[in-house]
Amino acid sequence: MAIELGKLGIWRHPSGVDAEFAAKAEKLGYGAIWLGGSPGGDLEYVDDLLGATESLVVATGIVNIWQDEPASIAKAYERIAGKYPDRFLLGVGAGHREHTQEFKKPYTALVEYLDGLDAAGVPVAGRALAALGPKVVKLSGDRTAGAHPYLVTPQHTREAREILGAGKLLAPEHKVVLGTDAAETRAIGRNTVKFYLGLSNYVANLRKLGFTDEDLEGEGSDRLVDALALQGDAATIAAGLREHFEAGADHVNIQVLNEDPWPAYRELAAELL
């Protein structure tokens, strides 16, 4: 892997990330910031983050293939990579059927998009693919630097590593809530997790991971919420994140759900870096 992400990264919506945020994250030892949601367009804010740091990698998590053409994203990639070699990873993905009116078969669309990136000169090592199902995980290994799974457990990480084999990037996201009041942390976790229970691709993947109809109905069972949003003190959360590394992850990006994320960033860095 040409782009070195380090062990731990931060997943966060671009609206919550600026140059000062990036510099603080780098100082704590985080190797990458994943810009969540569907960042797109000219990606000019990426330049600001990289310009404020020395070695931090910025990744998109993910550019939605339905919102930006390969050629336009390739121009943004060329500009950023030219100024900051080996510090930008273009994560792409197919988004959600429920949010895309012109949604066609995602696998076919992903292959076509990667063909477009090839034609526009975006290198395989400079891009990653959002991947849940085994077919797309394999595609990520065949056509990109590797996989960026979202809303998964260490079991998924283990299965993805078996598909990818050695030498391909596996960078799962995991939500965390720092706190010792179990009722409060679970409520915070559920408030985010419940959104994904209305999205068919995530629900299908969670079923494959062993969650039942009872787990997936309503706002989600306690078992589901606790698995998808690690909670507790820093040592407890770190133990849960280590399970991803033990299962074969190269890099884990954490999405802190606390209103003020910095205590969690600091304490988890101390535990894991």
From TrEMBL:
Q: Name one GO molecular function term.
A: oxidoreductase activity, acting on paired donors, with incorporation or reduction of molecular oxygen
Alphabetized UniProt keyword annotations: Oxidoreductase
Q: Which residues form the Luciferase-like domain?
A: 20-117
Kindly give the Gene3D superfamilies that the UniProt entry links to this protein.
Luciferase-like domain
Cite the InterPro entries for this sequence. Answer: F420-G6PD/mer, Lucif-like_OxRdatse_MSMEG_4141, Luciferase-like_dom, Luciferase-like_sf
Q: What is the name of this protein?
A: Probable F420-dependent oxidoreductase, MSMEG_4141 family
Record lineage: Bacteria, Bacillati, Actinomycetota, Actinomycetes, Pseudonocardiales
